[in-house]
Amino acid sequence: MSTLIDHPPVVVEADPVLPRHVYVLSMVLAVVAWITAALTFFLSDILLGPAVTNGNARGTALVVMALAVPMLLIAVALASRGSTRAIFALLGSVFYLGYNAFLFLFLTPFNRLFLLNVALLSLSVFTALALTLGCDRERLLDPRKRFPHRQLAILVWVIVALNAAAWLAEIVPAIIGPDPLVMVEGTGVATNAIYIQDLAVWLPLMGLAAWGLWNQRSMGVLLTGSWLFFGVIEAIGIAVDQWFGHQADPTSPLASVTTAVAVMGVLLLVNLFGVFYYLRAGQRLLTATTVNRRRTT
């Protein structure tokens, strides 16, 4: 006689998507980032620059505490359970922390948080390298699902081109004008660190990453997707830091709430559009299946 015996669910263990040291580095980065941001935000006399740039920095610190670090921690938890989609959010969060650590160091005058900001920048760089080199990039996307890789590559190229054009439209007139120092007037620093890292590192890197995405190279897929996640946080961050800067000094031309909210709102929607397709195409590797076996007695 034959009977059907139901066995309990069998959980299929997912292969690790990240090596253990990436999780350790990410957690240490999260702690250092939150402490640094909290001190920046809550200690009113810790920043020594003009009121407007101090306000900008405090706005960024708030976004680090309330958005970037929580996103990093959630991504770590999901990645540890086998989610490859979480890797994009994790690396995007690390990009954001590293990007703004550079600005905390070079767009604000020297202050008592210098060593913490150095640690934040260093941890961000090494965490990004460890994650990029250590993850299994070939499993980031499920090849069975449609993924508009070329359309997303074009989208990234458009963002890169518009960003570069916006910066050059400000830099070139200052260079050829009678007083180049007009570029940094009222900032309290010798040069603009945003232009430096965007034009020297981020925009060229993302242009190359988009080329890799166009050709369906795993590194291009990883970097482009992570940059789109970074763009979501950064769009929110700029809107917030502009608001804080304007509140700190409403007369300063260095902070504009209306323009920032409008431009960053558009940029946020554009990046969310790209993130949607990455989340849609991402493959979750941790699965649970129920196996029913027939036994003959």
Strand runs, count? 4
Query: What global shape is seen?
Result: globular
How many whole angstroms does the radius of gyration measure?
Answer: 22 Å
Task: Give the oligomeric state.
Answer: single chain
Strand order of the largest sheet: 1-4
Can you give the helix content as a percent range? 55-70%
Secondary structural class: mainly alpha
Strand/helix succession: EEHHHHHHHHEE
Number of domains: 1
Distance between the termini: 6 Å
Round the mean pLDDT to the nearest integer and report it: 87
Described by strand count, sense and barrel closure, the largest sheet is: 2 strands, antiparallel
Low-confidence stretches: 1-14, 283-297
What count of helical segments does DSSP give?
A: 8
Question: Proportion of β residues?
Answer: 5-15%
Overview of the molecule:
The protein has 297 residues and is mostly helical. It has one domain (2-296). The protein is 68% helix and 5% strand. The protein has helices at residues 20-42, 51-80, 85-106, 114-134, 149-176, 193-214, 218-248, 257-281, and strands at 2-6, 10-12, 287-289, 292-296. The strands form two sheets. A two-stranded antiparallel ribbon has the order 1-4. A two-stranded antiparallel sheet has the order 2-3. The N and C termini lie close together (6 Å). The model is unreliable at 1-14 and 283-297 (pLDDT under 50).
